[in-house]
Amino acid sequence: MTLMRIFFMTILLVIFPFILLAQDLIVFDGVVENEEWKLASNYQITNEIQPGNNVPSPYATQVYVTYSKTHLYVGFDASIPLENLRSAIRNRDEAYNDDFVMIGIDTYGDGRNLIAIGSNAEGSQVDLKMGADGNDDASYDLNFESKASKSDKGYQVELKMPFNELQFDQQDQLRWKLLLYRKTYANGNESQNIDFPIDRNNSCFPCQAQIVYELNNIRPQKRFNLLPYVFAGKGGERGDDGFVFDPAHFNVGLSGLMDLSNATTIEYTLNPDFSQVEADVSQIQVNETFALYYPERRPFFNEGKDIINTQLQTVYTRAINQPLFSTKMIHQDQKNRVYWLTAFDDKTTYLIGGENQSEFGEGGRNFANILRYQRTFDQGSHLGFMTTNRLLKDGGYDHTLGLTAQFRFLEKYTTALEWNNSLTQEPTNDWIDVPDIIAGKTLTLDGEKLKGNALTFEVARNTQNWNSALSFEQSSPHYRSPLGFSPRTALRTLGAEHSYQHYFKDKFVRQMNWEIEGELTYNYWGVRKLSAFYLGTYMEMAANLRTNISYGHFFNEEFRGFNPTHLRQLSMYIGYNPSEVLRFNFFVRKGKNIGYNLDDLAVGNSLNLFFSNSIQFNDNLLLSSRIRYSELKNQTDNTLYFKGYIARANLNYQFNNALSLRLVGEYNDFSQQFFVQPLLKWNPTPFTIFYVGVFIRLSSILI
Question: Is residue 200 a part of any domain in this protein?
Answer without folding.
Answer: yes
